[in-house]
Amino acid sequence: MTRFNNHANSIDLLDIARQTMVEEGFSPEFPADVRQEVSRLLSQEDPSTKSQRDLRSLLWSSIDNQSSRDLDQVEFVEQLENGTVRVLIGIADVDVFVNKGSATDRHAFENTTSVYTGVTTFPMLPEELSTNKSSLVQGEDRQAIVIDFEVRTDGSTVTSDVYPAIVHNRAKLSYEEVGRWLDQGGPTPKEVSNVPALEQQLRMQVEVANRLRELRKKHGALELATIQAMPVANEKGEVVDLVLEEPNSARAIIENFMIAANVAMAQFLESHAVVSLRRVVSTPENWPRIVEIARELDENLPPVPDSRALDTFLQKRKQVDPAHFPDLSLAIIKLLGPGEYVVQVPGEKSEGHFGLAVHNYTHSTAPNRRYADLTTQRLLKACTAKNNPPYGLEALRNIADHCTERESAARKVERKMHKVAAAMLLQNRVGDEFDGMVTGVMPKGTFARVFKPPVDGLIVKGKEGLKVGERVRLKLVSTDPRRGFIDFAVTQRR
Predict the structure, then answer these.
(1) pTM of the full predicted structure?
(2) CATH architecture of 429-494
(3) Which of 107, 299, 452, 483 is deepest in the core (most CB within 10 A)?
């Protein structure tokens, strides 16, 4: 991880985070009825698992951030004939603890997502559930929904089944340690060496993830590499670091497995004629500006949106100018726009996910963290139990719209807290100049990102005629850490 240090700050970040949550319409604290409900739940025996498949003997493991305790998924693969590999993704069965219409469910729907600010996390569900009862924690038997599919040597998949089962996580692994081991020849994590055959299991997972990735690339999936800087605070609430999350093979395993699992879930629900939620990224309306950016780099893109052509352009730029590829990726992401949730009626054409180059895609792999995934879980369980759907068409549309809106609000909270942290780190550097890139041109203002350290701010001088993706030299004019304001003046256009 890359770090950017500065200790000159004394602002209560937790208080600012809570206030920002409230300003964006979130309820950052769990009300009394939720606390009482969870307390009763913890005193009761877990629901019976006698009717579920017992898959505890399989070599399940999880990979997540080092600090994560709300573990939503575990993975297992096994070699079949002719090079085909069976992949099982176990998803935490959250619905078994959070009943539809309960106080906990109502509060989860109100927020719809966990919000990760870097300085603290505001979980969608009480931690007694999300990090314990409904978390696939290491060393415990847990109820799960298993997405079971096969991956051929060419990366194509066949969905075999989706079903409830009992699983047992043998090892909680971290992206950082597994990534250093797989990619840099670092020491084998003790969590791996302590479990017989787990090393072989993980290396097979890398191979399967690569198969899935290569096929999606052939179909036009975009491979982008943005700079994601998370603030790190000490016990006094002071920002001491900005930490960059860097890609590695461990993250690639989970990314490719989760995409495949979400596609498999969507296909399963479609095949059973279930009205369900889809996650879509529309064909970009800002394609002309993407074409213009390519032209500025002496490359040509077709006049109509084409994900395969765009990925070819991106991969060429990654080879030609790897140092600035994250900046180009950021510009493209801004122009592609965010995803949204929609309702998919079986038989109707699906808009698909432009960036992932898939036509059937849902969110199902993070029910502890996203309400859309919990909703999908309930739809699946009703389908497999041959019960009536838990939601009607209008109810699903309301959930889709609300989840999309709350996701946008969560991004605002996270951006605000990143800006607060960044302003704290830069407050003693007024007058310094930085290289950066324009990231937004809107009626409310023109915005830019500085490359080192990776922070965002408002251009208050010299903004006339700037375009998204344009590189500029910026002078830091002022900071207001409490409000997360960083103001720049353009000193040079490049």
Answers:
(1) 0.86
(2) Beta Barrel (2.40)
(3) 107
Q: What are the structure tokens assigned to 411, written together? A: 């991004």
C-alpha span between 416 and 456 (Å, rounded): 10
Each of the 494 residues of the chain gets a pLDDT tens digit; together they read 444 444 444 578 889 999 999 999 999 999 999 999 999 999 888 877 777 899 999 999 999 988 889 999 999 999 998 899 999 999 999 999 999 999 999 999 999 999 998 888 999 999 999 999 999 999 999 999 999 999 999 999 987 799 999 999 999 999 999 999 999 988 999 999 999 999 999 999 999 999 999 998 887 777 777 666 777 666 666 676 677 777 899 999 999 999 999 999 999 999 999 999 999 887 788 899 999 999 999 999 999 988 889 989 998 998 888 867 877 887 888 888 888 999 999 888 777 777 777 778 899 999 999 999 999 999 999 999 999 999 999 999 999 999 999 999 999 999 899 889 889 888 889 999 999 989 888 888 999 988 888 888 999 999 999 988 888 999 999 999 989 999 999 999 98
Q: Residue 203 is encoded by which pair of tokens?
A: 């290396």
The count of C-alpha atoms lying within 13 angstroms of the C-alpha of 67, restricted to the half-sphere facing its C-beta, is: 6
Delimit the domains of the chain by residue range. 12-217+256-269+362-409, 429-494
Residues whose CB is less than 8 angstroms from the CB of residue 300 and which lie 6 or more positions away in sequence, other chains included: 294
